[in-house]
Amino acid sequence: MTTSTQTNTPSDATPELNATIELPDASAPVYTTILDTELGPTLLTSDGAHLTGLYLEVSEVIDARLGRAFGVEATPEDDLEIFHRAEAQLGEYFAGQRTQFDLPLAAKGTEFQRSVWQALTQIPYGSTAGYGELAEMLGRPGAARAVGAANGKNPISIIVPCHRVIGADGSMTGYAWGEEKKRALLTLESP
After folding, report:
1. What digits encode the pLDDT tens for the residues 60-94?
2. Structure pTM?
3. What is the reported pLDDT for 103?
4. Rounded distance, CA 70 to CA 46, Å?
5. Above 60 in pLDDT, residue 15?
């Protein structure tokens, strides 16, 4: 596991899980900040202690999704430690110096969705997997479609690497933020 001051190089990549995805406290506030990243404005959300979302766009649609998911209005807050750590680690990732993230994560979702998101963290940097492979990892070989649906609802992009999931034929399928961003992330991670 890395810390916020250490970095991994691509040769250090392992399929080890770097953090457990917890369920956020239902009564926790929702804080937000916006980062400028190589993929454009990126919205981060937190309950104050965990990273609860990383959205590769900033829009009213995302704001509405947060309101429905958490039942509270988000509060802009640029000075949370978790946001500073996430910004530093994302900077290292985009510079090719980090292959794993070390951040406390919490994501609102069903038990099955969270198990899929947890499985996503097992796909090593520079690798890809198909929906069927993820279903196999979960011990549910017939659940590729359900895995795909859960993958599409992943609220913590990049850090929970849903961009590493591709179609069985190798196609760039199903990325909420568009094929261009998915291709950019996979290219960044390619050896």
Report:
1. 888 888 878 887 888 999 999 999 999 999 999 99
2. 0.86
3. 96
4. 11
5. no
Neighbours of 178 (CB within 10 A): 13
Kindly report the length of the chain. 191
User: Per the residue annotation, which of 120, 129, 143, 162 is the catalytic one?
Assistant: 162
Alpha carbon distances (Å) from 159 to 77, 140, 148? 20, 24, 18
DSSP, collapsed to helix, strand or coil, labels residue 76 as strand
C-beta separation of 68 from 75 below 8 A: no
Residue 35, H or E segment: strand 31-37
8 Å CB contact between 25 and 47: yes
Q: Please tell me what DSSP assigns to residue 148.
A: H
> β-pairing, 31-37 with 21-22?
unpaired
Active-site annotation holds for 189: no
Q: CB neighbours of 148 closer than 8 A, spacing ≥ 6?
A: 131, 165, 174
Is-contact 120 157, C-beta < 8 A? Answer: no
